[in-house]
Amino acid sequence: MKAYEAGLGALQGAVAEIDAALARSARRGVADEPARLEALLRLREALSLQQQRSTPPLSVVAFYLNPQILFWPGLYSSLICLVWVLRPSVPRPSRRDFATIVALGAGIYVFYDWPLWLRNFWLSNQARTIYAFSNYDVDRASFIAQELTIIGFSLLLATLWWQWSHAASPTIRRGIGTRPALARACDVRLSADVGRAFVRWQVNSVVLAAGFLFATNFYWTIVKVYGDPRYLLSALLIHFLWGVTWMLISLPVLTLWNHWHAIRGAAMAELLASDRGADDEWRASVLAEMRPLGTANLSLSAVSAFGSFLLPLVRLAVG
Question: Which pTM does this prediction carry?
């Protein structure tokens, strides 16, 4: 630690000397030394960049204003909003469903938490740069509180997974009937269902991303800024949980969108197989232009959603 502080002080001193030399040149109005000034500016930029990228060998992270301070409040707020405020239309869970949610929550807890146990009990000193309040060897009470917080997160996420896995089932059956495909394709209620499902997907995706971005930002800070690679596995696991949750939220709207396209394709086939002439050609042209969602809106939403999901991975990879 002393060597790091000495090296950082030397960098700061060198930058200060370059600033003083530049100030003297500016006061003298030295216009005939552009090469020297350019060299000084390049050297200052390189030293400043080295100073910014230098990480201390040890970091003591207290509770107040630490990188984790927004992690759990942001994630909990997002999940509570998704589970209670924006929940899909699903039947009330039975006792068996509650048992399923608890078992799923236990699986999520073990899946996410085992790297934390590894860091605290087996890799407590290997490549370690973080000494945080929630580490077992720093404060056991904070470690237990952290475990209880993760259990609550796991149960909330399991509840959300159960809700959306059951919300997909009625959506798959929506619109299936004995009516001809042309009649179903012209039913405005089906298009309205697609539009409402898409808006619901947009809102839920934004709320979900807002919560998980707090978590990914925490891990990016720990790995890249504090230089502790032991947290990388936890960063990837929580990103995987985000991806699974987003996939479950997206499944109903994707299913309904594909179903609508299948109905429109069947209606087009009915029209092409008929021999009623110009009237059917006009209907076919109308069907070809029918879209419950605008192309621009669909493209922008998809790009934004994928961008928010991939951005933390890109930041983690390139710094």
Answer: 0.74
Cα–Cα distance measured from residue 223 to residue 95, given in angstroms and rounded to the nearest whole number: 42
Helix residue ranges, H only, the chain: 2-28, 34-53, 71-80, 95-121, 140-173, 181-185, 188-220, 232-273, 278-289, 295-318
Judged against a pLDDT cut of 70, whether residue 80 lies above it is answered with: yes
- Distance, CA of 169 to CA of 259 (rounded, Å): 13
CA angle 189, 193, 196 (to 5 degrees): 130
Which residues fall within 8 angstroms of residue 93, CB to CB, at 6 or more apart?
101, 162
- Both tokens of residue 169? 């089932």
For residue 60, which phi and psi values (nearest 5 degrees)? -100, 115
Q: How confident is the model over 103-123, as pLDDT tens digits?
A: 999 999 999 999 999 988 887
Q: What is the Cα–Cα distance from 184 to 266, expressed in whole angstroms?
A: 10
The number of beta carbons lying within 10 Å of the beta carbon of residue 146 is: 21
Is residue 163 within 8 A of residue 253, CB to CB? The reply is no
Q: For 216-266, how does the pLDDT look when each residue is reduced to its tens digit (9 = 90+)?
A: 888 888 887 777 888 889 989 999 999 999 999 998 888 888 877 777 777
* DSSP β-ladder status, 59-61 and 130-132: parallel
DSSP 257-307: HHHHHHHHHHHHHHHHH---THHHHHHHHHHHH--SS-HHHHHHHHHHHHH
Tell me which residue has tokens 């039975």: 94
Distance (Å, whole) CA 92 – CA 84? 12
| Domain locations in the chain as residue ranges | 2-53, 59-318
Q: How far apart are CA 145 and CA 222, in angstroms?
A: 20
Secondary structure letter of residue 91 according to DSSP: P
Residue 240 bridge partners (DSSP): none
| Cβ neighbours for 234, distance < 8 A, ≥ 6 positions apart | 112, 115, 116, 219
Q: Is the dihedral of CA 252, 254, 257, 261 positive or negative?
A: negative
